[in-house]
Amino acid sequence: MITEQQLGQKWSGIAAAKLDIPPIVPDDWSEFWRIWNAEKARARRIGADRNNTGPGGWVGLDLISALGKNSFEQPVVPELIGACPVMMDTILKHFPFTSLRLVRLWQSIVPIKPHREGSPNRFQYPSEFRTMLHDTNVRPTFYMTPVKDPASADSEPAKLEAKLNGVRHYVNVSLGESFIFNGETAYHGAEYDPGHSKILMIVKGDLDLDRYDDLMQRSVDKYGPIVLESAAC
């Protein structure tokens, strides 16, 4: 059985990668939009994290919300689970988790500045799972940029420097495709065009380390990774 330390040694140099997972899409788009439009709400910050204590720039809803610590709160809508059994079954079968703790849908409503995830991963392997559920933008908007100094990476001056001068590497995925990114060695952010919309699905759970390692190897072999050469990793 592989360990987290070994995963860090093996995968910490990767900033992001598209995942070899079948498409994740709602079973019925008309039913999805009915529930989404009725239930979505502005994400409300309920706890501080290493980024800041400010409000979130998203609207959304949760299908599952069982994290022990969560910086944001939004409506939990199990009705959407019942409306999407095939989608949920695909997530359960193909994401490398023994159990799911969060399935969250987020739509950004402002530009998202470069930042790292609020909960640190001390082994520094990519551990943030996303699916591009919906996107009308004509080009990719989700990007990665290198962290130069981990010790000061979460300070506002460092994030401003990354916003103004960081080289942006865009994660190019099609609708329904999933990807993973490194929330430690790279910042991530998103550009915003008010004339378009994008909904990302966030999936978190109890990680099966061997399944994770297998998925990463298959995915990198199939699609190749995004590696930020100047990242501190």
**CATH architecture term:** Sandwich
Number of domains: 1
The parts where pLDDT drops under 50 for at least 5 residues are none
Tell me about the biggest sheet? 8 strands, antiparallel
Distance between the termini: 24 Å
> What is the CA-based Rg, rounded?
17 Å
Give the strand line-up of the largest sheet. 2-4-6-13-8-11-1-14
Number of helices: 6
Mean pLDDT: 92
Percent of sequence in beta strands: 25-35%
Overall shape: globular
Q: What is the CATH topology?
A: Jelly Rolls
**Strand element count:** 14
Query: What letter string, H or E per element, gives the SSE order?
Result: HEHEEEEHHEEEEHEEEEHE
CATH class bucket:
Mainly Beta
State the secondary-structure class.
alpha+beta
Helix content: 25-40%
Describe the structure.
With 233 residues, the protein is α+β, with helices and mostly antiparallel strands. It contains six helices and 14 strands. The protein is globular, with a radius of gyration of 17 Å. The chain starts with a helix and ends in a 7-residue tail after the last strand. The model has no long low-confidence stretch (mean pLDDT 92).
